[in-house]
Specification:
Keywords: Cell membrane, Membrane, Transmembrane, Transmembrane helix, Transport. The chain is an all-alpha fold. The chain has a domain at about 60-235: MetI-like fold (Orthogonal Bundle). The chain contains eleven helices and no strands.
Length: about 260
């Protein structure tokens, strides 16, 4: 193939890539745009003028504010629990050889591939059979279970690339097992831990399917949005979504900058 043909192929590939990026970004762009929509009727699906008032009235709908607060608290708590358990499990399966390791790896990847409908139904059956009241606690348990595997996989991938001689050198120099973990192992796997934490938080805060099975009377942000479709989604939803997206982008950029500086 000639150089001209290769250049044309490269250009077509670049154009296709940008089209895919634009297609994937279009829902987010629409959400951000309609956060500035001067809604004058029940519908918020047509552009009716530019305004900033919805940012000033962000928390004017009490039920929506409560739902957002529930989602943030549940996501934060479930992420902390998931990161602690997932980091230890990721270290175990990535560093050591033990009986049942194959079954553990299988269960980790099976949890990732299990449809949310199946997981939600199975958790509902578990909670009902155990006479557990469905509330924010059962949502946290559910979110930990379906996000744990993502933390394990990211931490395990980081652990596999570590040089064991670094830990051996720390112990030879007199560091205790805890000191070696705190000063050598944990900083080395922290990029994987941070990536797993961001995945767990994102999976938790936007989950609808599993949450709808185990929420009881607790309403989260996604559940509130789906429930308000018939009456009309207020512009505050778009504003909240924009702010959540913006914070997520800032965290991702900060993590990338920190990783580049460490490199």
């Amino acid at each position: 193939m000639s150089m001209r043909g290769l250049r044309l192929g490269d250009r077509l590939l670049h154009a296709y890539t940008w089209l895919v990026v634009l297609w994937l970004s279009s829902p987010i762009a629409v959400m951000i745009l309609f956060g500035f929509n001067d809604k004058k009727s029940k519908s918020n699906t047509s552009w009716q003028g530019f305004t900033l008032k919805w940012y000033g009235e962000l928390f004017s709908i009490s039920d929506l504010t409560t739902a957002l607060r529930n989602s943030l608290v549940i996501a934060l708590v479930s992420t902390i629990i998931t990161v602690v358990i997932g980091t230890m499990l990721g270290l175990a399966v990535g560093r050591y050889r033990f009986r049942g390791q194959g079954a553990t790896n299988f269960l980790v990847f099976a949890a990732i591939s299990t449809p949310e409908l199946v997981m939600g139904a199975s958790l509902l059956s578990l909670f009902v059979s155990g006479n557990l009241p469905r509330n924010a606690n059962t949502i946290i348990i559910a979110h930990v279970l379906f996000s744990l595997s993502f933390v394990v996989v990211t931490v395990r991938a980081r652990v596999i690339t570590l040089d064991p001689s670094m830990e051996e050198a720390a112990r030879d120099l007199g560091a205790s097992a805890w000191g070696t973990f705190r000063q050598v192992t944990l900083p080395a796997v922290m990029p994987g831990v941070a990536a797993g934490a961001m995945l767990a938080f994102a999976l938790s805060i936007d989950d609808y399917v599993v949450t709808s099975f185990v929420n009881g009377s607790t309403i989260t942000f996604p559940l509130w949005i789906v429930g308000s479709v018939k009456t009309g989604i207020p512009p505050q939803v778009n504003v909240m979504g924009t702010l959540i997206f913006g914070v997520g982008v800032l965290i991702a950029v900060a993590n990338a900058v920190a990783a580049r500086r460490r490199a």
